[in-house]
Fold this protein.
Amino acid sequence: MKVFVQIPCLNEEETLPAVLKSIPREIPGVDEVEILVIDDGSTDRTVEVAKELGVTHFVRHARNMGLARSFADGVDYALLHGADIVVNTDGDNQYPQERISDLVQPIIERRAEVVVADRQTQKVEHFSRFKKVMQRFGSWVVNKAAGTDLPDAASGFRAYSKESLIRLNVVTRFSYTMETIIQAGYKRLAITSVPIETNPKTRESRLFKNIWQHMALSGSAIVRAYLMYRPYIVFATLGAILAVLALIPFVRYLTLLALEVQGDHIQSLLIGAILATGALLSFALGVIADLTRINRSLSEDSLDLLKRQRYGR
């Protein structure tokens, strides 16, 4: 059993030593623990510091590619080098790496394929009240979309089994966290969480400029992932709403006609016809999107086979 701990880094020369120092080198049920540093276009001594501290596995980007790409490239490297479990942490030392052992145990015991650390955001001192509410709301939205019950869906401190990583495909450019949960829920992968307490804040997030940008990008990622796997629900719901709204002007027209109210009331017919057309288009798009989903599922089956061949399974 080999565990790869991957650390995406962007100019983390100051905090990386603390991260590396706190990663356990021995874990019950694990034969080897390897550390992988993903240099996402750093301009400081991040790589040199990692080498000085004994790290031998690196993925390097010439320019900043973003967290999602860093995660995907790190996973590819880890699986190619024999990883059975991949743990993702951060280079800013916000997560307690000493809890990695607890994070991987559900996978070792075959109770889960994906384990997400619960930061218990209500206890995080440097989170504002508004951010805590938004984190809880975001987790609720993701859980509804994925059919899961995770208290902290945005947490980046996670463990993935090799099997889950073969079946998951990251396509977003912002962050993999929401997308992989929705995919895992749709593909019926076992997911669980482990409560942790985060370390003191070391710096501001580099993923987004403010909470509003984070909300917008996260919301976009959730909607996109949901549309990939359950488009018929979205378009059928939209079509049903438009169909109900279309009835209102039609009923109004018939009522006015029955009461012999003066005028031709053509505007009611026009509005009703526009809404009814929108409803029909939504249902048609739902059918097309669902056929695309089926084609995507078949393509992913082929991709799973290629991954198994690539990673020796």
Notes: The two ends are 14 Å apart (CA to CA).
